[in-house]
Specification:
Layout (H helix, E strand, L loop, with lengths): L2 H11 L3 E5 L16 H13 L5 E4 L1 H5 L3 H17 L4 E8 L3 H14 L4 E4 L5 H4 L8 E7 L5 H4 L10 H9 L8 E5 L6 H8 L5 E3 L9 H8 L6 E5 L1 H4 L7 H22 L5
Helix pairs in contact: 2-4, 2-12
Length: 276
């Protein structure tokens, strides 16, 4: 999916919501456990319930890999279902890969040739040669820059002799690897005013923003400090949507939560005159 197509979806749906499919088999409604593929059954219901209110979906690979071959099969079925029934949704594999070049090349082949996702999250620690194999034409790299966890303080804010922090180096150096038509950045919602500093370095890039909802990040702050003239945000919500109700009514509850967030997002888009 191109950057322009993503913007058009945001304007059409008046939303920049990404639904995180962090599907934990220990948390899904008990009645689904009788299904031959309970994780996929849960995902399918969540996707159908929320597709009208979101522009992206983000399966987190850890939740699928933890189940072995059955989990990977559920992931593959989820991707295939999204492609067939909701092809307008931007599909992110949240895998946080990053390794030496030939290994990264195989990871990229797995996600972009076998699984057919639009984007994959990548860790930048090993540098350009570990990222470049993911820069496949027509696909996206979403580079970890400034994350929402407490441990972000351990390394991401470390300063060199000139006072430049590590996350700033990532933002500046990586722009030589790809343009804003192919690279996005992960910036956690809990970072608040730090979005202003991020935008100084990457004013026109999309930012994938986890941490709204269960992690306590503020959508209002993210929009105030991180939104650019064309939105430039994909804000992820996982647990607050997909686990809104533990009963057989889980899909309807997920729909309500997604619609609630979409309506708030529409207000911010309207304030910025991105939509009427």
């Amino acid at each position: 999916m191109t950057k322009q197509a993503l913007y058009e979806n945001i304007r059409r749906k008046r939303s920049f919501l990404c639904v995180g499919l962090d599907t934990d088999i220990r948390k899904i409604p008990a009645h689904l456990l009788n299904d031959d593929d309970p994780v996929f059954a849960f995902n399918r219901a969540i996707i159908d319930a929320t597709a009208a209110y979101c522009v992206a979906c983000k399966p987190n690979l850890a939740f699928y890999e933890s189940l072995g071959a059955k989990g990977l099969r559920a992931f593959e079925r989820t991707v295939a279902y999204l492609r067939e029934h909701h092809p307008d949704l931007f599909l992110i594999a949240d895998a946080k890969r990053g390794d030496i070049g030939n290994t990264s090349e195989l990871y990229a082949r797995s996600f972009f040739e076998h699984s057919d996702v639009d984007a994959v999250t990548v860790a930048p620690y090993m540098g350009e040669d570990s990222v470049r194999p993911f820069l496949t034409p027509g696909r996206w790299v979403i580079l970890l820059a400034l994350t929402s966890n407490r441990g972000a303080q351990d390394f991401q804010f470390m300063q060199d002799a000139r006072g430049e922090r590590l996350f700033e180096k990532v933002l500046k150096r990586s722009q030589a690897w790809a343009s804003d038509e192919q690279m996005m950045y992960v910036v956690g919602a809990t970072q608040g005013r730090m979005f202003l500093e991020v935008r100084q370095h990457v004013p026109s890039h999309f930012l994938l923003v986890p941490g709204v909802g269960a992690q306590g990040g503020s959508l209002a702050e993210v929009c105030k400090y991180g939104m650019n003239e064309q939105c430039g945000l994909l804000v992820n919500s996982s647990r607050a949507i997909i686990y809104a109700d533990p009963t057989e009514a889980f899909a309807a509850a997920a729909r309500r939560e997604a619609q609630k967030i979409q309506e708030e997002m529409a207000g911010y888009l309207k304030e910025r005159k991105i939509v009427k």
